[in-house]
């Protein structure tokens, strides 16, 4: 069974960037198959990973529904479920060192939940094939209550370096307990820290009863890579964000 790391946090905190750098860490340090799952319809994990996506779960679901409605023949007489399983396997982007599955932007009533259920089912199914799964979750908290991520070894909650950010993180932290989610460990990363505020926010978070995993600094190289359209998985080892995050991840005993 894979070791599952999920990322949560409100939009714009750098959750997707931390997810991509976590994939980079696992590829470099563990050298075993990694599955990245973009379960956030608003984020672009593929850009951070520097790969193109040809089909999302949302699109595949739409296509399958159309096949059912049109009564068209299915290849090899496959059942609808077999066809969809096959398509999902085909949609997984195979990159150097990791694979990627994307939820996309499901349209129409009920589609969001359906796509979420599909992604959950396939994450479970595929987690038997991979040693590590990294899930970039929906921004905000409602996804946790939908239990997109039901077996999670490590949940990293990402906050920006603001008091409001830490308070939002506290709400997410509280939900983990309240909803009795299947999360073995959870901790906060304060991202984009550029000065003394990081330590003050760490203190505030700890006073609120949140476990702080560590601080990741504001890194100009991330901006440069974004500007050049390069995936941040290519960041060099001397990147200050990479160094800080690797230190944080080393502190967890990731199997
Ligand atoms: N440590 C960092 N240093 C510099 N820039 C960063 C850092 N972390 C993230 N960023 C930048 O902040 C912006 C938001 O990051 P990202 O897209 O990862 O956030 P997000 O929380 O996933 O947001 P959303 O859910 O809206 O996509 C991006 O432009 C990203 O390049």
From TrEMBL:
Keyword Transmembrane helix found: no
UniProt domain CobQ/CobB/MinD/ParA nucleotide binding: residue ranges: 5-230
Keywords: ATP-binding, Nucleotide-binding
GO CC annotation, single: cytoplasmic side of plasma membrane
Nucleotidyltransferase recorded as keyword: no
GO process annotations (BP): negative regulation of cell division
Annotated InterPro entries: CobQ/CobB/MinD/ParA_Nub-bd_dom (IPR002586), CooC (IPR014433), P-loop_NTPase (IPR027417), ParA/MinD_ATPase (IPR050625)
One Pfam family named in its UniProt record: CbiA
GO molecular function, one term: ATP binding
PANTHER family: SEPTUM SITE-DETERMINING PROTEIN MIND HOMOLOG, CHLOROPLASTIC, SEPTUM SITE-DETERMINING PROTEIN MIND HOMOLOG, CHLOROPLASTIC-RELATED
Descriptive protein name: CobQ/CobB/MinD/ParA nucleotide binding domain-containing protein
Natural source organism: Candidatus Sulfobium mesophilum
Organismal lineage: Bacteria, Pseudomonadati, Nitrospirota, Nitrospiria, Nitrospirales
């Amino acid at each position: 069974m894979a070791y599952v790391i999920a990322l949560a946090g409100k939009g714009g905190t750098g959750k997707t960037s931390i997810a991509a750098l976590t994939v980079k860490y696992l590829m470099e340090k563990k050298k075993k198959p990694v599955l990245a799952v973009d379960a956030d319809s608003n984020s672009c994990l593929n850009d951070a990973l520097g790969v193109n996506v040809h089909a999302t779960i949302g699109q595949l679901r739409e296509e399958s529904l159309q096949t059912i409605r049109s009564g068209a023949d299915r290849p090899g007489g496959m059942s609808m479920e077999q066809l969809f399983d096959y398509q999902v396997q085909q949609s997984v982007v195979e990159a150097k060192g990791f694979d990627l599955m994307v939820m996309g932007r499901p349209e129409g009533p009920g589609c969001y939940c359906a796509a979420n259920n599909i992604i959950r089912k396939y994450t479970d199914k595929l987690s038997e094939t991979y040693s590590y799964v990294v899930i970039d979750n929906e921004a905000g908290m409602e996804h946790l209550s939908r239990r997109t991520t039901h077996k999670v070894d490590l949940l990293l909650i990402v906050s920006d370096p603001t008091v409001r950010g830490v308070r939002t993180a506290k709400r997410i932290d509280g939900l983990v307990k309240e909803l009795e989610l299947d999360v073995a460990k959870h901790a906060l990363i304060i991202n984009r820290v550029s000065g003394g505020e990081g330590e003050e926010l760490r203190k505030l978070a700890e006073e609120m009863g949140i476990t702080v995993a560590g601080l990741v600094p504001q890194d100009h190289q991330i901006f440069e890579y974004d500007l050049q359209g390069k995936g941040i998985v290519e960041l060099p080892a001397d990147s200050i964000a990479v160094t800080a995050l690797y230190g944080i991840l080393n502190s967890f005993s990731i199997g």
